[in-house]
Design brief:
rod-shaped; mainly beta; 3 domains; 41% strand; single chain; 5-stranded antiparallel beta sheet; 1 helix; 269 residues
């Protein structure tokens, strides 16, 4: 059977086809009909159903190559928007949205449950998470080549913190805990420090220092850098007191130098 485009009742969903070619078959039982047709122009598939209660019902079925919103790039599957300016990509373990016009990844905004950010710092800003707190606890070993009986600096650089080292920085240091007979068993310092750098700012060190035995100094002292370098402070740890457990201010950098540590022409050495 062929239905021409100018025939009465030609389906509107087949607009653009010059004709539909196919067949109609009567359904057993009630007076009803079903059919399958192909469009002459697009070669798309159309199905037809008719019953006394529904009347004629036409459905157009897209060809496989008409679905142009999906692409497979090896292990990446991409879903495009209407004009292919944005795409959503998925792999076996990651996913994200990429803009081909902006040439960058687009984060999910806060109003849709995301962070609206591509970095941890920007995410904290967008979610109004205040800066502060401590770093994760870290275990630090003695520097390579350390000699028995000597103290070695663990340097805290606070230049990346809020205040650029001009405000106090929290610190928790605990040396290795061993049996009571160990000559350097478990020293702990918990408190705050600041290297003023200049005489008008003044240096600050306050907190609680606890030693298992008053003669067992695993943490000898705190030394601040000289002027022009107010962000650097060194805690001197006995070689035998390593490894140490340490937490300090958020964004502070911890350095265990393996040789003399000199900042410019003056500083911690």
């Amino acid at each position: 059977m062929r239905i021409m485009a100018d025939a009465t009742g030609f389906p509107s969903i087949a607009s653009g086809e010059s004709s539909l070619t196919g067949f109609i078959s009567q359904v057993d039982g009630t007076p009803a009909y079903t059919g399958v047709f192909q469009g002459w122009t697009t070669r798309s598939l159309y199905t037809y159903r008719w019953s006394p209660t529904t009347g004629p019902q036409w459905t157009r079925h897209a060809r496989k190559n008409e679905v142009d919103r999906l692409d497979q790039w090896n292990s990446e599957t991409w879903l495009y928007n209407h004009d292919k300016s944005m795409r959503l990509g998925l792999t076996g373990s990651t996913w994200g949205c990429y803009s081909d016009t902006q040439k960058k990844w687009i984060p999910l905004d806060v109003s849709h449950g995301g962070t609206g950010a591509n970095s941890l710092d920007d995410a904290k800003t967008n979610l109004q998470i205040p800066e502060g707190g401590l770093t994760k606890a870290m275990t630090l070993n003695a520097p390579g080549g350390a000699v028995d009986g000597k103290y070695y600096p663990v340097i805290i650089d606070t230049s990346a913190m809020e205040g650029y080292g001009n405000l106090t920085c929290p610190i928790d240091i605990k040396t290795a805990g061993r049996s009571s007979s160990d000559p350097l068993n478990s020293n702990t310092f918990s408190g705050y420090f600041r290297c003023g750098g200049w005489s008008d700012s003044r240096d600050i060190a306050c907190g609680s220092f606890v030693a298992y035995d008053k003669n067992e100094l695993g943490i000898l002292c705190l030394k601040v850098s000289r002027k022009d370098y107010p962000q650097y402070v060194a805690f001197y740890i006995h070689k035998a007191a390593f490894p140490i457990l340490l937490q300090t201010g958020y964004k502070a950098r911890v350095i265990v130098p393996t040789e003399d540590y000199i900042i410019g022409t003056s500083g911690v050495k």
